[in-house]
Design a protein that fits this description.
The complex is a heterotrimer. By secondary structure, chain A is mainly α. Chain A has helices at 45-80, 82-88, 94-119, 123-153, 210-216, 240-243, 262-295, 304-329. Chain A contains eight helices and no strands. The termini of chain A are far apart. Among the domains of chain B are: 129-262, Immunoglobulin-like; 269-369, Cytochrome c-like domain (Cytochrome Bc1 Complex, Chain D, domain 2). In chain B, 35% of the residues lie in helices and 14% in strands. Chain B is built from ten helices and ten strands. Chain B has a five-stranded mixed β-sheet with strand order 3-2-1-5-8, with no helix packed on it. A five-stranded mixed β-sheet of chain B has the order 4-10-9-6-7. Chain C has one domain: Cytochrome C Oxidase, Chain A (Up-down Bundle), CATH 1.20.210.10. By secondary structure, chain C is mainly alpha-helical. Chain C has 17 helices and two strands. The longest helix of chain C is centred in the first third of the chain and has 36 residues, at 81-116. Classes of the chains: A mainly alpha, B alpha+beta, C mainly alpha. Chains in contact: A-B, A-C, B-C.
Chain lengths: 331, 384, 570
């Protein structure tokens, strides 16, 4: 690569990094050769580092807006169906969610330590902390796995499947015949035939008339049930021991369940699921960083990847810190 | 179109005159102008005036900008070899302030004019006459307080009319250009719109819709009817959801409503299938044919025999008779859908009463008496 | 005018010709793989350009098909309304997502932005290549969706129709648009960091060319708005596959919620389309008037202001959807405020012509066409921002005409003008000037014939997305269709003029137009690393240092004059 002489631009440090400038402001070492860590299109390591930082912060902004859409959806659903949220949040296991929160916060700590160790040339510490962070992610996903599997077992899921009773004898949801369970919102027609359960999909099977449809989106006064009795208003506060267990019994037998409760689980899985995908992506990044750290790529002169990867991990943690109270703590 | 161009200079003065007339309480439909169709509602003059105001502001600014652009290019044209000009202003603060502030004031003015006429569109008067409208793929049904139902919209003249809109399936939008009103019809909720037309059109001269036509009906004559369109894309038949609006004076409207509510009740049982059948079939024709060609739904040719052969139709089975099955198909279509058709049929519960269903069943039973292409009754006595 | 010959040696010469003629970014490495794995922003930009133009051809074919169908009410070339519905949907989706949104930033921006900054590349070249492959996979998936049954939802995918229609191509195209969205986000991210961190000595913010201001403002919108589109598409896909019910009224959802989500991105998206176009126009007009742009600071600030305001006006697409009168009023009022900066930009451009030395090159003709067409497009936005007139005009052909004037008549015209403007730089060949100018006029005439009639169609009451229509509208449709054929002819001529130049067109000098910004100070085509010697950035709108050299048939910039004037540096 040809040497290119140019004015030495003073590094544009917008803020103090809070650490010693161990990296030189020129890309050249004492022999005038380019530092191998310096990309050809940057003038200096400082410029390269600053660009990486700005880049990752912009990416975090996109992540915030990406999740932001779901937060807005949450807010709107909560505003329209407060009784659904106060009812259904009891089905979430606060203990497990709390443990997950601690796990993620600790993993953020180990990640920050990893960055610190990289900056101070402590390779062993760096690798240890990266591995610990990775394990934290694994722990988080394991706990999430238990939470989800409990819910799937009880059919506390999104959409129309919510209205199929769990533990059905045949084990085949499609063949289930509903005689006493409430019909899905939006239809007042008794379904009593051997045909497969039809999802009340709107364009294919619109409501009997608009008022029934409207009622489905109303509150507890809701929709007529197959057995003819209207849905009663939900109880003020369900008995704690009945609701806070992992297996509260089939939700469909609970007369106080408001209609449209499936929406709570829809938004719950959407948000925690999307978050979980980001945790998995984070694990990939951590694994890559660990591999590079073992290889010896990082030093006080070059720790950019650890720093930017760390920022990504912090936002994953931060999003969970918002999710946890919104779903698990507010009733 | 030439006539439209000739009306251009009149548009502004006409709009102003109409607006003035509206102020005084009297309304008259405005003629078609270069830009706008005839205005037949009480809010049309306000909307048209707003449009004229905006138009003239636009003409003015467009003319200035283009004229200056052309002038400067011509005057300051540079040809290869000429000297470049070096004396030119980089900025001019008073000018820049001026051309920021002036447009701001103008758009505020436009906003205010538009806002005021919008409030008229948005707020229905308290004593409005309610008509329920059901939109579905791909047709409209209008229901009146006395139970009358109609495929076209008939409204009383001189009274505010409020439409209560609902959709059975997807988004639609009800648009009547001559009245300058439009509202999206959203499934799952009621929407409202209102208008008042003071100029009766009278009853339609004759049946104008050919159910098997490949295109919508003929040209519009606004003195006789107004067009009603669906204007939110809703699928295959989106452009075929046209209906007409007829404005009737008070007495005629009352008579029409009564007759409409009773029309099917007054038909003797044995004449139902040929007097009511074809008319009701209008609502089915988008998906069902009479000539054997299957569409979104099965063709009705030979349907009775087919239904008799279904496994769940028969003594002791789910549907005791074929009439039961047909009736359920109309009222609760998803109950049993014959493969390979999709569960796509909307329900007609609330729109078709028992007699109407009897008429349709009779129609299906006597299909051989009808022309498979046009649905016309072949055994009708020759028209005079 | 005396020509001042280009110095035979010294810094200017070094900048231009430090390498033998044949060595430029196109020829520096050879072979398909050197393009497939390139990290060179110029090559990536060129690949984008070809892909975008191919998409434009495809979208244009659908447009011609649907316009031909509309020659008569009822069936014309197809019996099936579903086929027509797919045509207009595909035309819209391809043009919006594959052509107009990426064209200027990804194709022209990628090539020009780093060079204008005197930099060697964008901040993240690998991310740039990744963006390109995201775009390609989105485009391929979009084309595949045609084979999987197509889709007929309209490019806006309104629920509940889009979640319930049984055409098989819906989920593939939603995924495709998701990928395209991320391509856009990463390109924007790249540009923001590049503009912040890789500016050369001497180029403060207010010394940047206006094209860079425009790209920067666009990049901000790309980064902030596109993720919301991403989540919206994900929700649609999930709604369609596993039926969560968020947009389904019978399950407690709200179809209008989708519209809010969709337009929260799609309104800023139209500013992604127009802002870079305005940047190009600023460049073309300043250079071809050989004088500084009038009101530079205003134009720079207005780009940022438009970007910010664009986020708070989305509701003006939904005036008839059932929004409360209060929301409608607020959105209407704020929408007017967005109109003002755009209007003042137009005044600034016209004022730039004043006492300039106007050369009527092909790019300049495109810029003048832009002013004409953007004025109409922008002014008709007033009709749509006004509440009462919008009730009448919403979802009619008036809206179609309005957005074609701003998206096609403005953004696309500016893109083609920019293509002509930077074509000599990118490929080292001059296109056929006269043919280019004639083609521009044909496009301009065809465009107005096509779309001005649609204003009248709409205000007379013809709804959008109609396969069949009332016979009294036919006259307008026939005229409009004839206009579309004229336009197609014009675009063909443009293609001949541009692409033909690649096969033996005259060689282009480094600076054919007399520009002052840094891209004109490297050879045409640029060397693989852009500059032999990083030039100093002066005042890019001060043309007094630009001199004509008869021998090379181009201009050259005397930076020494600038250094003398400008005592301090950096």
């Amino acid at each position: 690569m040809t040497q290119i002489a140019h004015d030495h631009k003073a590094p544009a440090h917008g803020h103090d990094h809070g650490h010693s400038h161990a990296h030189g402001s020129h890309g050249h070492d004492a022999h005038g050769h380019h530092d191998p860590n310096l990309a050809h299109h940057f003038d200096s390591l400082a410029q390269q580092f600053d660009s990486a930082k700005l880049g990752i912060w912009l990416f975090l902004a996109t992540e915030v807006l990406f999740f932001g859409g779901l937060f807005v959806a949450y807010a709107i659903l909560r505003m329209r169906f407060p009784e659904v949220f106060s009812y259904a949040s009891h089905y979430l296991d606060t203990i497990m969610g709390g443990i997950n929160t601690c796990v993620l916060i600790i993993s953020s700590l180990t990640m920050a330590l990893a960055v610190r160790y990289a900056q101070t040339d402590n390779r062993k510490g760096l690798i240890t902390c990266l591995v610990l962070t990775f394990l934290g992610a694994v722990g988080f996903l394991v706990i999430k796995y238990f939470e989800y599997s409990h819910k799937f077992h009880d059919n506390l899921v999104w959409g129309p499947k919510f209205y199929v009773p769990p533990h059905s004898a045949e084990g085949d949801l499609e063949a289930a015949v509903l005689k006493t369970a409430p019909a899905a919102p939006g239809t007042a027609i008794t379904v009593e035939n051997p045909a497969p359960w039809q999802v009340p999909d709107l364009a294919k099977k619109p409501a009997v008339d608009a008022s029934a449809v409207k009622a489905a989106s109303q509150g507890p006064s809701g929709v007529a049930r197959a057995n003819g009795t209207p849905a009663p208003a939900p109880a003020a506060e369900p008995a704690p021991d009945a609701k806070d267990q992992a297996h509260p019994g089939t939700h469909l037998e609970d007369a106080s369940m408001p209609p449209n409760t499936h929406l709570f689980f829809a938004i719950y899985y959407a948000m925690t699921g999307l978050h979980g995908i980001h945790v998995v992506a984070g694990m990939g990044i951590l694994a890559w960083l660990t591999w590079r750290a073992v290889r010896g790529d990082f030093s006080s002169k070059n720790f950019t990847a650890v720093d930017t990867g760390g920022l990504y991990w912090h936002i994953v943690d931060l999003i969970w810190i918002f999710l946890f109270p919104l779903f698990y703590l507010i009733h | 179109m030439l006539t439209m161009l000739q009306t251009l200079p009149n548009a502004a003065s006409q709009a102003i005159a109409a607006a003035a007339a509206a102020q005084s309480g009297a309304t008259a439909p405005s003629a078609r102008t270069f830009w706008m169709p005839p205005g037949a509602s009480t809010i049309a003059p306000g909307v048209d005036l707003t449009l004229e105001v905006i138009n003239w502001i636009c003409y003015f600014f467009f003319a200035i900008i283009v004229a200056l652009m052309v002038y400067f290019v011509a005057k300051y044209r540079h040809r290869r070899g000429e000297r470049f000009r070096t004396e030119f202003p980089h900025h001019n603060t008073p000018l820049e302030i001026g051309w920021s502030v002036l447009p701001t004031l103008i758009v505020i003015g436009i906003f205010v004019v538009g806002f005021r006429s919008y409030l008229d569109i948005y707020t229905a008067p308290k004593n409005a006459f309610d008509i329920k409208v059901t939109a579905q793929k791909w047709g409209w049904t209008f229901q009146y307080p006395n139970g009358a139902q109609s495929d076209d919209l008939y409204v009383p003249a001189g009274k505010p009319v409020r439409l209560v809109l609902r959709s059975s399936d997807v988004l639609h939008s009800l648009y009547i250009p001559d009245f300058r009103v439009k509202r999206d019809v959203v499934p799952g909720r009621y929407s409202y719109m209102w208008f008042q037309c003071d100029h009766p059109t009278g009853l339609p001269a004759a049946e104008v819709r050919d159910p098997n036509a490949k295109t919508v009906a003929g040209p519009l004559d606004a003195s006789q009817r107004h067009a009603l369109f669906c204007t939110e894309y809703c699928g295959t038949g989106h452009s075929k959801m046209n209906r007409y609006v007829y404005v009737l004076d008070e007495t005629t409207f009352g008579e029409w409503m009564t007759k409409q509510a009773q029309w099917i009740d007054e038909i003797p049982e044995e004449e139902l299938y040929f007097k009511a059948g074809p008319k009701l079939f209008q609502r089915c024709v988008q998906c069902h044919s009479l000539d054997g060609v299957n569409g979104i739904g099965p063709s009705w040719k030979g349907i009775v025999e087919r239904v008799k052969g279904y496994p769940m139709v028969g003594e002791g089975k789910k549907y005791a008779t074929y009439q039961d099955y047909i009736r359920t198909s109309i009222l609760a279509p998803g109950d049993y859908v014959v493969p390979p058709y999709a569960n796509a049929m909307p329900t007609f519960k609330g729109q078709l009463n028992d007699k109407a269903i009897d008429a349709l069943i009779g129609y299906m039973e006597h299909l051989d008496d009808f022309d498979p292409k046009t649905g016309k009754y072949l055994k009708a006595p020759a028209a005079k | 005018m005396t020509t001042i010959p280009l110095p035979t040696s010294g810094p200017v010469r070094d900048t231009l010709e430090a390498r033998p003629d044949s060595d430029n970014y196109l020829t520096h490495t050879r072979g398909v793989l050197s393009w497939v794995f390139t990290l060179d922003h110029k090559r990536i930009g060129v690949m984008y350009m070809w892909a975008v133009l191919a998409s434009f051809l495809l979208g244009g074919i659908f447009a011609l098909l649907l316009r031909t169908e509309l020659l008569t009410p009822g069936p014309t070339i197809t019996d099936d309304a579903n086929v027509y519905n797919k045509w207009f949907t595909l035309h819209g989706a391809i043009m919006v997502f594959l052509v107009i949104i990426p064209s200027i930033p990804a194709a022209l921006g990628n090539v020009i932005l780093p060079i204008m900054l005197g930099a060697k590349d964008v901040a993240f070249p690998k991310l740039n290549l990744f963006s390109f492959y995201l775009w390609m996979s989105g485009a391929v998936l979009c084309v595949l969706s045609l084979a999987m049954g197509g889709f007929d939802t309209g490019w806006t995918f309104y629920t509940p129709y889009s979640t319930t229609t049984d055409t098989g191509g819906v989920i593939p195209v939603l995924t495709a648009v998701f990928l395209l969205g991320f391509s856009s986000i990463f390109t924007g991210l790249n540009f923001v960091v590049t503009v912040h961190k890789l500016r050369p000595p001497g180029m403060t913010w207010f010394r940047m060319p206006l094209f860079l201001w425009a790209l920067y403002a666009t990049a901000i919108i790309q980064v902030l708005a596109t993720p919301v589109l991403g989540i919206t598409l994900l929700l649609l896909i999930v709604e369609r596959t596993i039926n969560i019910g968020i947009f389904n009224p019978s399950m407690g959802g709200d179809p209008v919620l989708y519209q809010h989500f969709f337009w929260f991105y799609s309104h800023p998206a139209v500013y992604i389309m127009i802002l870079p176009a305005m940047g190009i126009i600023s460049e073309i007009i300043a250079i071809n008037s050989h004088r500084s742009i009038f009101g530079y600071r205003f134009i720079a600030f207005s780009s940022i202001a438009i970007a910010m305001f664009s986020f708070i006006v989305w509701g003006h697409h939904m005036f008839t959807s059932g929004q409360s009168a209060l929301m409608n009023t607020l959105f209407s009022a704020i929408s007017f405020s967005v109109a003002i900066p755009s209007a003042v930009k137009v005044f600034n451009w016209v004022a730039t012509l004043y006492k300039g030395s106007v050369s009527l090159t092909t790019p300049m003709w495109y810029a003048l066409a832009f002013i004409f067409l953007f004025t109409i497009g922008g002014l008709t936005g007033l009709h749509l921002a006004t509440l009462s007139t919008d009730v009448h005009l919403h979802d009619t052909y008036f809206v179609v005409a309005h957005f074609h004037y701003v998206m096609m008549g403005s953004a696309l015209i500016a893109m083609i003008g920019g293509l002509h403007h930077w074509w000599p730089k990118m490929f080292g060949r001059m296109y056929h000037e006269k043919l280019g100018t004639v083609a521009c006029w044909i496009i301009f005439i065809g465009f107005n014939v096509t779309f001005f009639t649609q204003f009248m169609l709409g205000s007379q009451g013809m709804p959008r997305r109609y396969y069949d229509y009332q016979p009294e509208f036919q006259v307008y449709h026939v005229i409009s269709t004839i206009g579309s054929y004229i336009m197609a002819f014009g675009f063909t001529l443009t293609a001949v003029s541009l692409f033909g130049s690649l096969f033996g067109g005259p060689k282009a000098p480094a600076n054919p137009w007399g520009g002052r910004s840094l891209e004109w100070q490297c050879a045409s085509p640029p060397p693989f690393d852009n500059f032999a010697k990083t030039p100093r950035a002066g005042d890019c709108y001060d043309f007094s240092a630009v001199h004509w050299d008869e021998k090379t048939g181009g201009y050259w910039v005397d930076e020494s004059a600038d250094a003398a004037k400008d005592g301090s540096h950096a």
